[in-house]
Structures are given as C-alpha cells and as structure tokens.
C-alpha cells in the first residue's frame, strides 16, 4: 500500500515536470515567433516611412520567407533541410538547377534585418536539432559509417554526391558573400 502511494506521488511529480517542460518549450517557440514578427514589422515600417518600396523584391521575398519561418518554427530542423536536399537531388527532373539570388541591397536597415533573420534562424535550427547535430557529428567521425553512407548513396537515384557537395558549396559561398556585403555596407554607412 505504501509502495502504491509512493508510486502515485512519483507519477504525479513526473506529470507536473512534463507539463513544465512542455510550457517552457512553448514559451521558447513564442520567443522565436515574436522575433520573426519584430523583423517583419521593421520591414513594414520601412515601407510606411517610404524607405523601401512595397513592390520591391527585398520586401516581397523577405516577408514571404519570414512568414514561412513563422509557420514552420516547431518543425524546422536539420533533418528537414537534409530531406529537402535529398528530395531535390533524387528528383527525376534532370535539368533542375539551384538558383541563388544575388542582388545588392542598398538599404542598411534591410541588411540589418536580414542579418538578424539569419542569426535567429541559425539559433532556431540549433535549438530544434541538437540531437540530430550530435548524431551527424558522430556519424561523420566514424569511418565505418562513412563507408556505409557512401555505399547506400551510390545505390540511390542521386545524380551524385558531388552534386550535393556542389550545391552546399554554392550555398556556403552565397552566405559568405552576403556576410561580406553586410560588413562592407555597414562599414560605409
């Protein structure tokens, strides 16, 4: 009887603890949502003050991207990005190409919004993907897993692992160019 009473108390304590963890996660996700809302509102204020055109590609594309991230806050993760890359590279459409938009942004406030957006997204990905990142690090360190991964990648419909590497290299080059552009424009502003 005492055992059942203690077990009941333990279950109740664990239940309360689980509720606290759930509430904490909701609060954190709300913080990311509010950060994205703030960035979106800052862009809207630039339009209201006439510093940015509502029909400009910066406003349209950035707002579209921010809205997507607001809707995908809880599901955004490294595994989702990897599955998107794999889906792209296993697609039957042979002439698909990744097009990276390289346009200059003249407004330093828009650059600041973009820098904060990228930083917020990186923090969100890190928070949502901690376990996935650790598993990927372990897999990449293990020579046995490298042989297994490349053996199975070569058996799929992927064009080649070189295509994935090329795509990732292009994305990294774009990110580096963007960061350099931000540093140059904020230094001259």
Itemize the secondary structure elements and their pairings.
Blueprint: H1 2-48, H2 57-71, H3 78-89, H4 108-128, H5 130-141, H6 143-154, H7 161-188
Helix pairs in contact: 1-2, 1-4, 2-4, 4-7
Explain how this protein is built:
The chain is mainly α and 189 residues long. The chain has one domain. The protein has 7 helices and no strands. The radius of gyration is 22 Å and the shape is extended. The chain starts with a helix and ends with a helix.
Task: Summarize, please.
The protein has 189 residues and is mostly helical. The chain contains seven helices and no strands. It has one domain (27-188).
Observed structural traits:
single chain, 189 residues, mainly alpha, 7 helices
Question: How many DSSP H or I helices?
Answer: 7
Q: N- to C-terminal separation?
A: 74 Å
The percent of residues in helical segments reads over 70%
Poorly predicted regions are: 94-101, 156-162
Q: What's the shape?
A: extended
Largest sheet: none
Q: How many domains?
A: 1
Strand segment count? 0
What is the structural class?
mainly alpha
Q: Kindly estimate the percentage of residues that lie in beta strands according to DSSP.
A: under 5%
Give the overall average pLDDT. Answer: 75
Taken in chain order, the helices and strands follow as HHHHHHH
Backbone CA Rg: 22 Å
